[in-house]
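Following up on my earlier thread - several people asked me to post the actual chain instead of describing it. Fair enough. Here it is, all 1323 residues.
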Amino acid sequence: MRNLSIESAVVSGLPASARENAPRITSCAVDADTNALYIVVERASADRGICVEIWKTAESNATDLQGPLASLETSENVLHDASTSTSSRVVSARVLPEARSICVIINYGDIAMLSLEPGASPEFDIVGTIESGIKAASWAPDDSKVAVVTGNDDLLLMSADFTVLSEAPIHIYEFGEDQSVNVGWGSKSTQFHGSAGKNAAAADVALSAVGVSPDDDKIPRVSWRGDGAFFSVSTLSLGAHQAASTHRVIRVYTNLGVLQSTSEPIHGLEHTLSWKPSGALIASTQRFLEGRGKEGRHDVVFFERNGLRHGEFGLRLWDPSDKSVESSGGRNGKWGYRIKELAWNADSLVLAVWVEKDAEDVIQLWTTGNYHWYLKQEIFPLMTASGTSRRFTAMLWHPEDALRLVISTPVTLEDYRYCWETYNSHTSVASTNGTVAVVDGASVHLTPFRLQNIPPPMFSYKIDFPSAPSSEMAVPIHVSFASGADVLAALYHKARVILWSLGTRGEGVGGKIAKPSLMWDGICSQVVRAKQVSLWIGSGGNAWRIAVLGKRSDSEYEVVEIIQMHEGSTGSNVLDLPISQKSRLVKSEGDGIFLVDDNGQLVRLRVDDGLVQPTSSFPEYCFSVQSTALGIQPIDKRLYFGLAASGKLYASDDSLSATTLSTSVNSFVLTPSYLIFVTNSHDAFFVLLLSIPMLISSAKASTAALVETWEKRRVERGSRIVVAVPSAMSLVLQMPRGNLETINPRPLVLEIVKQDVDMGNYRKAFLACRKHRIDLNILVDHDPEAFMRRLPDFVEQIHEVDYINLFLSGVGRSSQPPEKICQFCDAIRKQLEDKDLKKYVNSILTAHAVKSPPDHEAGLSLLLQLKETERDLVEDAVKYIIFLVDADSLFNTALGMYDFSLVVMIAQHAQKDPREYLPFLKELRAMDPAYQRFRINDHLKRYLKALESLRLGGSARYEEAKKYVEKHGLYADALRLWKSSKAEHEGFLELYGDFLFDRRDFKQAALAFSVAGRKRKAMVAYERAHAWRELFSLALSLPRAEFHQDELKGMAYRVSDDLRSRKRYGEAARVLLDYAQDLPEAVIAYARGNEISEALRIMSTHPSKTEDLDLLESIIKPIALELREEIAEDIKEAHEQFVKQRNRLIELAEVKAKDPETFYTEQDAAEMYNIDVMTDAGASTAVTTFTRYTAAPSASSQRSKQTSRSKRKQERKRGRKGTVDEQEYILQSIAKLVARLETMRTECQHLLPHLVVFSAEHQEAGKALQHELRSFEEALIEGVDAIWKSTGGENEGREGERSSGKLIQRPDMPKATWAIGLMELDV
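Reply from S.P.:
Thanks for posting it. Predicted structure:
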């Protein structure tokens, strides 16, 4: 639904001094490297010959052409006859970039070259001549070959240096190498032939009846395919037998000159020829003569490369009802026109048709979409002050700039640049109809997408604009819609403007889709070459401004003529612009007139004083520009968006700064809240307009973060935006073929939904969410407080039960906190209950079911209330709630309510098998109520409620309750329930104590037994807990009759043995002394615990027993010597360990200093034993120096997961000799030796004082012990200082090693006075 709009139109001409001898521009050539145009001018010479001149126009677009650069005198052309005396002598003019020259081929046979190098000779070089002359010539697209048709009707194919590659006669009667083989199916004989019948399929085409169009100029044409692989030649082919069979034939050749195919005979086929650059079709024209179809029919026809027809479209050039043309006797017969040339543009999207009419020439631009051909533009020769001929002499598309068309008249050159534009109504206005206009000849097709979605080429309605006496008024140049009004303006070639009030009907209103009516028709007298029109409506609605952009007749600078209409009066102002080429009026709402110039500068046109005020700028010129005002303070804050030809989308504001939003955009549109654009990577982006100012002013880093927040969605490949309709929440996209796709983007839908919620229009918002599958929870989340206030309105508007159920389901699935969900559901439920309980019973059940957690029981309770009075209603409600909730869960809930009728009803409607539930229900009915509830709750795994039901059963159920408590671990609940019954409570306490005893929580079990009065069990638990104080206290509290002294003594011996096994010698001795009255065993216990001082004190308190047993000699002194030997053995072991580890550290330090590589690769040989070789490469490759210390994966390290057993094995290997952790392990072990030294000091401090006083033997033993400990202490202190000084206490590793590199802190070694001074003396 795109249209062609003029971007710029530049006219340059021959200077007045060069217009002698009737000069005539006959050909053009484009230099793509310098973007310059070269013009071939022919004029009569003194000897009746022709002088060919080369002129030039630069990119500066000067008014006059530059030249002549060179000239070439020719003689009278022998090929010309009277009918072609006004034709051009130049057959082809082409700039050859590689040779930096221009090649001119003249019809009498000369091929001339002119060098374009700076400083080259301004003379033509004749590189060759064809004696018979040249009828047609065409260069390949890559300039590597040229195809020439000679005067003898031979086809020459030459290279770029004019070496002949092939030569053959043009008139041959073979089809070519692509001659198809007829196998029956798919052939012409099997196809449908309409009213002609089957006989037409068998009949051969009579060549004598084909005929030639009277418009044929008898000249051959040559056209190349875009890739240069093939070219086609159109000639008048003479029949093999008679001259009457002359007809136009198109032949296709390869780029080696080999004939591939010949077109089928076509009646009235004309001379025009143009091969589509994309390679699909070859275009020509066909005139239908009398008896060959509809009178006056004239088509553009297409051929495939194999010569077969492939579609056509009709030209709209002749009106049979217009008899003035036929009676005038013009040069073009009764039709008054003929087709001179066809030309495809570079991207194959536009076909230019050059029409020669009796009065003037016209060039039509045609495009196609969805298999329909649209006439988009008509170009007429521009009248100049000198009144030159209104005829074209040449037409050329730019080879790289696809929409640039160069046309020449005899003395002027017209350079047109076009752009694609979609004529849509202002989408930045919320009330827009989304109307899109498509120009198709004299008609404008209109579709308001807010009301109808009709794909092209169809449309809702059309406007046939009134034609004027001049044919120039047929096709509008530009179309524009008013902002805020349903009005359309159309601009024509002579600056004629027509305003139409479209009268589009409102939404939901019957009748015609629109009733267009003419509002105004006038001409802008100050503008000659108009190219754009824009329309604004004043704030009051009765004032209009029409701005027409174009050029004056006497100036190359552009002007804007502004027509102001107010209450029937009309006035105009003209603003001159300092712009000579590109400029565009900006689409904007309001009454501000903005314009963008060729440098990207945005200006505001002040109509009152005629000033041009700069407002903002883009980095480059943008053809498509839109402006909008933000609805924030300040009110006049405006944003500008521009799309450049490079695909970059810019955004700017009044601060004269701009930012690039994207670099690959093909189309964009504005809505009241969003900027929407589609990229070439097939993504549609939705950017909130309020975020654009921050984006413009922020740095690049923050810009990237903002871009990530834009919402986007994928669209079909090649999609372009047609229009956005905010009120309909839709975005219309057009596919490359032309078909439409309407989507409802989430941002647009949410915007309208939020607006409706704010206005309290909940029904419209709900229906929109339901239609577009938006989470209905947005109705609540948008403004929860307002929703709660308007809850009665919500229920009143959305009165359908199904709609309320759907809404409640959405609320239940929302991300709101559970308490919020329950609050909303309860509030809605209360409103429904107050309004009509019976009608909304299903909705009320839904409100209970979607709560978090669900309250199924409350819903079933409601059904119980209604069951007696509304049984049918309840049955329907049961069916609904079964659909809503899992049937088994609902069955269990009903069972837990102890109502068997409701249970049976749910089971029946849930289609449960009666064999599954009826026996169980029958069994329950036979039980008493309390036990019945126990069985139900137990079945539902509601164990606490089941226990409560057993409690109601009284003492008869006590034993079963104990088993139930023990089975389900309900001890705390049982103690709470039976707290008032002492006997049962103590029983449950004992049960709880047994439970704790089994869990080996003996201390807690003993407490439970004590509270329950089970002292014997408590004593056992205390003994197992080693709580001997509580044990003997409880034992002594028992009556003597229940607990004898012998039992007490036996218990004391058991407890003391247990304590001694745990090295609690002091406590064991206390038990033996207090409860067993066994002094010797108590002394032994104290002595074994190195508490000799306490043993001596106890002995002193029992002197009689001590003397009788001689405990000092028999027990204490021997044990003292045993303790000395044990401590000495520990000191010796620790000392030897320290010496070995210190020596190993010295060895490691020497190895590391001498050969670090050996240090880091040393490995225990045992680890290499029995290792499987996984690959030959692993077996032959030497181990690198860091293999064991890097994290690089190897065959052995690529195991899935280590088991716990293998991990323990690896832990045991840690610290082995030669491993990477050895040094760290040794340092940690030495730190532990320091801690052991402290323990040894303490033990010696307790033992040595007694060794000194016992005997001489004990003294010697004590001295030796003290010496050994002091030696170990000194060695350890010295060694620790040296080790931590040399290593720093850190397991030093290399970068990348697997060693942890953990820092081992130097252990503290506080000084202690443990030694006995007397042992240092010789006493």
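Residues 1267 and 1320 are 9 Å apart (CA to CA). That should answer part of your original question.
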